[in-house]
Design goal:
By secondary structure, this protein is of the alpha/beta class. It has a six-stranded mixed β-sheet. A five-stranded mixed β-sheet has the order 22-21-20-23-26. Strand 7 and strand 8 (232-234) form a beta hairpin. Helix 5 (167-182) crosses helix 9 and helix 19 (674-688) crosses helix 20. The chain starts with a helix and ends with a helix. It holds the Pfam family CHGN. It is an enzyme of class 2 (transferase). It comes from Eudyptes sclateri (Erect-crested penguin).
């Protein structure tokens, strides 16, 4: 009887363990495999492949074993990341760590390529100018080095003069200058002469395929006269490439080379210096990359050269005159353009062949092939509208008018598009048909941010057959000007530590809003100790100015300023009194500008502006001396009586920009440096010739727009929110300024839907 009971207990135990049985088996199998693998690795570690003298042999593929301390061999230390532990000596006082200005400096990043052009006083205004106009803008950084400079340096060229025309001395000083000023900033240094034409794009592509961790001396290798057969120097006429590591090793020996090596040619002198002290010779190919060159014969016609060696040349020498330099540039630019078109055609063919394998199939193929598909709006508010134009007029004007004359960049754009359309039609139908334009019937264009500018043209064409028959027909064509490669525009460095000088003009009509402005200024700048100051500008009417001794209309404001100065003992708020009937913004800034240093950063505010730290920081960052001025577009709240109609005002932080609009008609707020304003104002004074009435029709924005040459940054600013207030528009100002003020008041009442509801309720009330 005990046997059946034991069997039942065993069955019950197995039933209980059955859910966890896979887990137990998995753990057991894993432990067994790990023990087995450990035994294999221990036995394998005792049987290393040893080379001669018992040293470990090289690994397959050319790699090398690591050293015992885990570091790689010579030449690889720059590629292995190292963690430097933080240690602070408790015996030394704490010192704040100063961070670098740019993160790439802290991480040790270098720019790619620096180019030095050796020129002379005789060729500075000829060949050097030709180099500057052809290839200089393709290189990231290019400097010209000469012994003696001429009286006038050509525009747009950065020139370094060493004061001596001796060739060896010029080369020595140039290498020393490059090391001292750019040795720690660039990985590659390309040195060329001004009688050399270099294909900039080819040279830039070359350095991207070379390792930066080797000593590179690459160019057209030439033999020394009567020297060692194995030694070579790089011919200076064809340009040569030097790596940063080689420059760092060469610099300590430059003085010895100058004193010990005698040579007539500077390139030979440099090559001998590198060979004697570093043991490195010039090579024409390295790491699978070939440096192709071509020597021009006399009276060469670049357009007729068809040799493969000429087509593939990185550098061409000698270039005897400016005209030949420009012809070479045109020829090689055409070669690069043809290569680019051929690559585009090949890529488009590959895309067509692969489209059938995609989930969307051939229906997913967009036009043009390889360009992003058009933007698909998700609602009617995202629809991109088309602008209509003809050859003479544009029917969507920047100032909002329905029709304006087509001129400037827009006219050039339309002309280029029509010419391109005719060229494409003729290339497709010739020799059967040849088209010529008679008239542009209709033109439409729009900017699609996902792909570029799109055009649709209705052209009236005249088609001529091979037999001379003529026929007039209308044809619609579509074109796309795709967005090109995005480039980062270099901007000067600015910080948020700059002091901002607020300027607040006040008239009698503004007295009701001054108290709120001063309260916001005290709360957001004085309480937070922001680096900002305030200057008030009291604008008296001539009648009020005569009675100022009896009744001062700004007495209340001055009392408020006195209270602020008592509350904040270290703060002084000066004011300036001005008497005028027409408060011109330019005339007022003329007075303020003379009372402040030239490096002052002004913020021209309005009495409805609510100052906050967020905007002041953007004012500092967006305003760059001698480069850019900032005109923010403030957010104007609507009239609460029309928007809410007695209901409670929305107080949610997410809706603070809901019931209002960005007032693009207002230019009252501006951030700019005093030096930039003074420079533009000087040019304006020379233009108007003491005609002060012209200033009444201008704002500070107009001064910078027409007379500064600086970048004008005009952008919406959510940090500038103004409560609704009906502005007083001075009819004595110019018609344009008065019209803008009236439009600002009208558009600031309410949105269309709110105005429609107000009219609807008014009509209902009148009907009842």
């Amino acid at each position: 009887p005990s046997e059946p009971g034991a069997a039942m207990r065993l069955a019950a135990l197995l039933a209980a363990l059955r859910p966890v049985l896979p887990l137990v088996l998995g753990l057991s199998l894993g432990c067994s495999l790990s023990l087995l693998r450990a035994s294999w690795s221990q036995s394998g570690g005792e049987d290393q492949c040893l080379g001669a003298a018992g040293r470990p042999g090289p690994l397959a593929g050319g790699a090398h074993l690591e050293a015992a301390d885990g570091r790689l061999g010579p030449g690889h230390e720059d590629f292995r990341p190292r963690i430097v532990p933080y240690y602070r000596d408790p015996n030394k006082p704490y010192k704040k760590v100063l961070r670098t200005r740019y993160i790439q400096t802290e991480l040790g990043f270098h720019e790619r390529l620096f180019v030095a052009v050796l020129t002379s006083k005789a060729t500075l205004n000829t060949l050097a100018v030709a180099v500057n106009k052809t290839v200089a803008h393709h290189f990231p950084r290019l400097l010209y080095f000469t012994g003696l400079r001429s009286a006038k340096v050509p525009h747009g060229m950065v020139l370094v003069a060493h004061g001596d025309e001796r060739p060896i001395w010029l080369m020595y000083e140039t290498m020393h200058y490059i090391y001292q000023h750019f040795g720690s900033d660039y990985d590659w240094f390309y040195i060329m002469q001004d009688d050399t034409y270099a294909q900039a794009e080819q040279v830039k592509a070359l350095v991207t395929h070379l390792s930066i961790n080797q000593d590179v001396y690459l160019g057209r290798a030439e033999e020394f006269i009567g020297g060692d057969e194995q030694a070579r120097y790089c011919h200076g006429g064809f340009g040569y490439l030097i790596s940063r590591s080689l420059l760092l090793k060469l610099h300590p020996h430059l003085d010895s080379c100058r004193n010990e090596i005698l040579s007539v040619r500077p390139d030979e002198w440099l090559g001998r210096c590198i060979i004697d002290f570093l043991g490195i010779t010039c090579v024409s190919q390295l790491q699978g990359q070939h440096y192709h060159t071509y020597e021009l014969a006399k009276n060469t016609e670049p357009e007729k050269e068809e040799e493969e060696e000429f087509q593939a040349a990185f550098a061409v020498h000698p270039v005897s005159d400016m005209t030949l330099m420009y012809r070479l540039h045109k020829h090689f630019s055409r070669i690069q353009l043809d290569r680019a078109y051929q690559e585009i055609q090949d890529l488009q063919m590959q895309i067509r062949n692969l489209t059938s394998l995609t989930p969307a199939g051939e229906t997913g193929l967009t036009w043009p092939v390889g360009i992003n598909a058009p933007f698909l709006p998700k609602s009617r508010f995202e629809v991109i509208s088309w602008d209509y134009f003809t050859e003479q007029y544009l029917f969507s004007c920047p100032d909002g008018s329905p029709k304006c004359e087509l001129s400037g960049a827009s006219k050039a754009d339309v002309s280029e598009i029509i010419e391109s359309a005719l060229e494409q039609l003729n290339s497709r139908y010739q020799p059967l048909l040849r088209f010529s334009k008679r008239q542009l019937l209709n033109g439409y264009r729009r900017f699609d941010p996902t792909r570029g500018m799109e055009y649709t043209l209705d052209l009236l064409l005249e088609a001529v057959t091979q037999k001379g028959h003529r026929h007039v027909l209308a044809k619609r064509v579509s074109l796309v000007r795709p967005l090109s490669k995005v480039e980062i525009i270099p901007m000067p460095y600015v910080t948020e530590a700059t002091r901002v000088q607020l300027v607040l003009p006040l008239t009698v009509q503004d007295l009701d809003f001054v108290a709120n402005f001063l309260d916001m200024f005290a709360m957001n700048t004085l309480d937070t100790h922001d680096n900002a100051l305030l200057t008030l500008l009291f604008i008296y009417h001539p009648y009020d100015a005569q009675r100022v001794s009896q009744v001062d209309v700004f007495a209340g404001v001055k009392a408020m300023v006195g209270e602020l100065e008592k509350r904040y003992a270290e703060v002084k708020i000066p004011w300036i009194s001005v008497k005028t009937e027409v408060p011109s913004q330019v005339k007022l800034m003329d007075i303020v500008s003379k009372k402040h240093p030239v490096d002052t950063l002004f913020f021209l505010a309005s009495v409805w502006t609510e100052i906050n730290m967020e905007f002041l920081n953007r004012c500092r960052m967006n305003t760059i001396s001698n480069w850019q001025v900032f005109f923010p577009v403030h957010f104007q709240e609507f009239n609460p009586a029309l928007v809410y109609r007695g209901e409670q005002t929305a107080s949610s932080s997410t809706d603070f920009l809901r019931d209002g609009h960005f007032d693009r008609h207002s230019f009252a707020e501006a951030c700019f440096y005093n030096s930039d304003y003074m420079t533009a104002r000087t040019k304006l004074a020379a233009d108007i010739l003491e005609r002060d009435e012209v200033l009444e029709s201008m704002e500070v924005f107009d001064v910078f727009l027409h007379y500064s040459g600086l970048h004008l940054f005009r952008a919406v600013e959510p940090g500038l929110v103004q409560k609704y207030a009906l502005r007083s528009c001075n009819p004595r100002l110019s018609e344009e300024l008065y019209h803008r003020c009236v439009l600002s008041n009208l558009e600031g009442l309410a949105s269309r839907s709110h105005l429609a509801m107000a009219l609807f309720e008014q009509e209902q009330a009148n009907s009842t």
